[in-house]
Amino acid sequence: MSPRIVKVSSRRYHSHRLRLSSSHYTLPREIPSSNSIRISSRSSNRIRPIDHRLIDSTNAAKCINNINEKSTVIREGNTYEHATAPLFLRWNSTGITVAGISGVSGPAANQLNHPWGLGFDSSYALYIADRINNRVQKWDINASTGTTVAGQANATGGSTLYHLNQPTFIQFDSSDNIYVTDVGNHRVQFWHYGARSGSTICGTGIAGNSTNQLNQPFGIARDPITKTLYVADYENHRIMQYQWGQLSGTVVAGGNGPGTNRTQLYRPVTVHFDSSSNSLIIVNYDAHNVVRWILGASSWTLVAGSINGTSGNSSTLLSNPIGVMLDPMKNVYVIDRNNHRVQLFLTDQLNGITIAGVTGLNGSNATLLYYPYAVIFDAELNLYVADRYNHRVQKFLRY
């Protein structure tokens, strides 16, 4: 199969302080155009390169010359300004199974059962919200089995502090503590690193719509500076904001009933905090779109999909999107669930490019996905996709 190659628009880039995030990495807000940008890996205490190259501006599937200039290591206080040429990102269209057994579900240590949310800790171990097994699994690099770090290894669900009931998304802080959306218990649980039990930090365990209740919280995002949590309150059609240590939240997006108007959300399933614009990127599951809601605003702007809630499988449409991630250049990656694909929307573009999976075709071979649910990157911008109905996590190499 030919690699998936996409163009990144020309623009001017300014570097900002480079620091690692609470999840897996942090890159500069904008990147100097060069053959390599160097980022620090806290797991290895070294500087590691990420390559960028040119592609034909009129044909996103045809690679041309490499950029020859070299970048310097970014240091706090330094600002670079480059007039840039187009860049490209490309991934192999054949995935590698890095967790689970393709097409086989189960509770064994080498198995998954409908994996959902993904995350990396500071050592680049992969964490997986193993939803139907009611647990969070940790897979070390190149491991063939996982270790249970939240919930019960035998897949027993429950509502005690030792249990989870269908966990969906996970977040980390700088100490590798875990935040888990425990959707079946209508709560968010906090698990200290290495702990055997969690504590409830959002929700009461009973579905409701008051400010201290949640109704199927699926997605979660965290501001690492303020420690504020943002929770996608799916059946309440709103995003809740929780200040650290507070059990009662504030509605910061939606909350006006289900719908496709710009003041409404329709089953928001995933939320991503974009610190550069102080906004939330929200996956609007039943409105078939992804929207941006600036904190403090009363309405959203469209990022991807249909503005009026139309579903479809064209390059401008989505069908029940369910996951989202931004890269360092603020391109948007969307898990297009019902179309069995991952779509890339370049910054400010509404026309998507399929970079993993085949539109409308599900399956278990290495080039196909079967209702994918989440996407994340490692430090080299390799893609990891939770391939839910294949009970596996697929890695698509960038090169």
Characterization of this structure:
The chain is mainly beta. It folds into two domains: 4-91, no CATH class; 96-396, Neuraminidase (6 Propeller), CATH 2.120.10. It has no helices and 32 strands. The chain has strands at 4-8, 12-14, 36-41, 46-51, 53-55, 63-66, 81-83, 87-91, 96-100, 115-120, 126-130, 135-139, 147-151, 167-172, 178-182, 187-191, 199-202, 217-222, 229-233, 238-242, 250-254, 268-274, 279-284, 289-294, 301-305, 321-326, 332-336, 341-345, 353-357, 372-377, 383-387, 392-396. The chain has a four-stranded antiparallel beta sheet, with no helix packed on it. The chain has a four-stranded antiparallel beta sheet with strand order 10-11-12-13, with no helix packed on it. The protein has a four-stranded antiparallel beta sheet with strand order 14-15-16-17, with no helix packed on it. A hairpin with a 4-residue loop joins β27 and β28. The protein is globular and about 45 Å long. This is NHL repeat-containing protein. NHL repeats lie at residues 99-142, 158-194, 318-348. GO terms for molecular function: zinc ion binding. It holds the Pfam family NHL. Keywords: Repeat.
